[in-house]
Amino acid sequence: MKASDVMARDVLTIPEQAAIEAAIAIMVERRVSGLPVVDAGGMLVGILTEGDLLRRVETGTGAHHRSRFLEFLVGPGHEAADYIRTHSRRVGDLMTADVRSVAEDTDLDAVVGLMERQHIRRVPVVREGRVVGMVSRADLVAALGRQLQAAGSTGDDAAIEGSLRAELAEHPGLAASNITMFVRDGVVTLDGVIYDQRTRDALRVAAQNIAGVISVTDRMTWVDPVLGMVVP
Predict the structure, then answer these.
(1) Are residues 218 and 137 in the same domain?
(2) Which of 93, 92, 64, 90 is nearest to 79 (CA)?
(3) Do residues 142 and 161 share a domain?
(4) Which of 99, 168, 202, 209 could share a disulfide with 175, CB 3.0–4.6 Å?
(5) What pLDDT does 46 receive?
């Protein structure tokens, strides 16, 4: 799947010259926690999030005390930057300028990886520098729900068995397990010998994820490879 398959397309942006009151009004009304920020030409230049609005003099949270030694180390420039962030009412002064974005054809795996590495909850989707969508964690969860629902559609027993064998063939550690399987009326029965209890759970999960599977019957036997004996 690509970013364009799951992204929200009705995305509001905010000009960098706008007042933060306007941005806050949109965030509250639309129940979103972040807004892409654009320049006069409509190009993405940053993102304003709830985190950017946490420390403000209006709410009494603007103070960010550092030790005198730390103040000496960071220099007066940091104090000036803190003052701007806690006092300015211009979106461009508060936004996060180092915004990460993706293209419409970016694989979802890459989008999720970016979210994980950068510890962010949403990623703007751009086309030639202009925002055309937004992928949030909520969008990814919704996409997962649709996929799970689609996977629940029924299939015949032969198709189920074929799909399960194909899935196991993609994971050599599972395919190498000394097991047999048969499917009847959507019920998958797994039999044979396994040498690691974790393999049991992995095989069960693989079977349960196949479209049309109603239940899984576990008749597998665990043999300890060290002791060479069946373990109850």
Answers:
(1) no
(2) 64
(3) no
(4) 168
(5) 95
